[in-house]
Amino acid sequence: MIKKCLFPAAGYGTRFLPVTKATPKEMLPILTKPLIQYGVEEASDAGMDIMAIITGRGKRALVEHFDISYELEHQIKGTSKEELLRTTRDIMDKCTFTFTRQTEMLGLGHAILKGEPLIGNEPFGVILADDLCSNDEGENVLAQMVKIYDRYKCCVVAIQEVPKEETYKYGVIDGKEIEDDVFIVSNMVEKPDPADAPSNLAIIGRYILTPDIFRTIEETKPGKNGELQITDALMNHAKKGMVLAYKFKGKRFDCGSVDGFVQATNHFYAKMKKEEK
């Protein structure tokens, strides 16, 4: 079983300035829960119970959120507000949280490499918390991907179809479909111009990675914007073995953008109201 999930969470969140000047973007709330908690709950529901979080300067709130607040809990003990902390306490009871820092922002590949001491020599999940996923019809996205990994025992990336003119925002794959919604990757390009994109199948912030990816990242040269891109590392990995892309079931909200953040808020608010009826 895959037991660990890595959360790269050291970025500055500049698209949400000024609020992210002092607040980590992963702590921005969708209703009453921060983005990072949605991601941790998804990983936990997929069978993972060790959360490895890559933080950075000014990210102390991430650590505090998954710790006991004695003063707060004392103040609300025995009141109706005590129930409001239940989901956070439940996830704290189920999971172990480990943390390390990324002192320089050198790309997602670099952030994942910084997580090696927390992961060790075993397969692991990766969640980018500002890609908020929801599947009201069944298993969450990471749980779906674990099943793909269990069959093939290789790296798996989540993909979705995007408008061709938006491929410049994503890593984009090309490949052969080997079963419904599962592709063997033959090409993978980071943020291509629409005219050069190999397809409209875009990678979103969910990965299952095998531990040999760490050596591949070390061997990969900096790419777009001089950063160490996980897309480039996975392309190199695909040349040596097999990388799969999975077109997942469910919705994904880009909560790193204002539009996506508002859409996610509206979606989860409507879902909450429906459950209250």
What does this entry look like structurally?
The model has no long low-confidence stretch (mean pLDDT 93). The chain has helices at 35-45, 60-65, 70-76, 86-94, 108-114, 116-119, 141-152, 213-219, 230-240, 258-276, and strands at residues 4-8, 29-30, 33-34, 50-55, 96-101, 124-127, 131-134, 155-161, 171-179, 182-190, 201-209, 243-247, 251-254. It contains ten helices and 13 strands. It has 277 residues and is of the alpha/beta class. The strands form three sheets. It has a five-stranded mixed beta barrel. Strands 2-3 form a two-stranded antiparallel ribbon. A two-stranded antiparallel ribbon has the order 7-13. It has one domain (4-276): Spore Coat Polysaccharide Biosynthesis Protein SpsA, Chain A (Alpha-Beta Complex). Helix 8 (213-219) crosses helix 9 (230-240).
Can you tag this structure with a few keywords?
Spore Coat Polysaccharide Biosynthesis Protein SpsA, Chain A; 26% strand; 34% helix; 277 residues; alpha/beta; 10 helices; 13 strands; two-stranded antiparallel ribbon
